[in-house]
Amino acid sequence: MISNDMEIMLYVDNVTTSKMFWEALGFVTIDVQELDGTMVVEIAPSQDAEVHFVLYERSFIETYSPEVATNSPSVMFQTKNIEAFYRKLLTLDVEVGELIQLDDSKLLNFADPDGNYYAIKSHN
Asked: Domain named Glyoxalase/fosfomycin resistance/dioxygenase: which ranges (predicted)?
């Protein structure tokens, strides 16, 4: 059976830069390893989160698994305070979409330093 714990692999140009970006948004580092001379970092929104991101250098994936190197996941986060998260994003040097109101929720998208897009929403 599949457990509730999940890891999403993100392929980035620079693991250190990506790690610093996610830490600026409040993520914590769960684990750091070296694999064939490249750093692999596992991060999560909190120590006890069930979903973690694992950051891999894109060049490493292009070498060892070229068939998946250009895949980007579509990830949507949820938050209780989207306005505070929006203000935090605006302090970073990344692209941030407009905060929009849907029927019973607010939504916005943003890009990480590698140009991968994410969405985040909150329910009213």
From this structure: 8-117
User: How is residue 75 written in tokens?
Assistant: 């990830």
Closest CA to 42 of 2, 8, 3: 8
Statement: residue 64 has pLDDT above 70: yes
pLDDT at 59 over 70: yes
16: nearest Cα among 45, 56, 44, 49: 56
Residue 38 shares a structural domain with residue 62: yes
Instruction: Tell me the residue range of the domain where 117 lies.
Output: 74-124
